[in-house]
């Protein structure tokens, strides 16, 4: 079902993904973070919808539809590296910190910091070119807003 998307995601060509594919890659990464602890809660799904609605100016219905599509993509995706590469190629460095904040919003949505979720955020942040210190500061900002 998502074969064309994965083909574009794994292409070695010089072209970066289009906006829609980059949006889907970020959405799938958010879902992957939420599923990392084996408990994809409604709080996490709601937080993903909020992040997507805010980041992409989507209606609640559109955000839920994008998350639902991303759940299918994430279930079929081979690894996290491809998502982060697509995001890194599509999002300027200065804006990637907001991506890491979005990841932390999902991790902290259910009120529990799980080691698996933390591990994937650390990996994703590193692959996005965000160092551990900046990722920790992003987490603290998100935590302070909760």
TrEMBL record:
InterPro entries in the cross-refs: DjlA_N (IPR007791), TerB-like (IPR029024)
Domain Co-chaperone DjlA N-terminal stretches: 23-140
One Pfam family per UniProt: TerB
CDD domains (alphabetical): terB_like_2
Signal peptide start and end residues: none
UniProt name for this protein: TerB family tellurite resistance protein
Organism: Shimia litoralis
């Amino acid at each position: 079902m998502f074969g064309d998307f994965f083909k574009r995601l794994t292409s070695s060509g010089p072209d970066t993904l289009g906006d829609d594919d980059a949006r889907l890659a970020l959405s799938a990464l958010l879902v992957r973070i939420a599923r990392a602890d084996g408990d994809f809660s409604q709080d996490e799904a709601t937080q993903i919808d909020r992040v997507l609605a805010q980041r992409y100016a989507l209606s609640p219905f559109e955000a839920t539809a994008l998350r639902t599509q991303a759940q299918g993509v994430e279930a079929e995706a081979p690894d996290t590296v491809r998502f982060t590469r697509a995001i890194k190629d599509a999002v300027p460095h200065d804006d990637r910190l907001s991506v890491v904040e979005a990841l932390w919003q999902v991790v902290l949505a259910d009120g529990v910091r799980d080691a698996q979720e933390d591990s994937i955020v650390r990996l994703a942040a590193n692959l996005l070119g965000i160092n551990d210190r900046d990722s920790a500061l992003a987490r603290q900002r998100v935590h302070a807003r909760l």
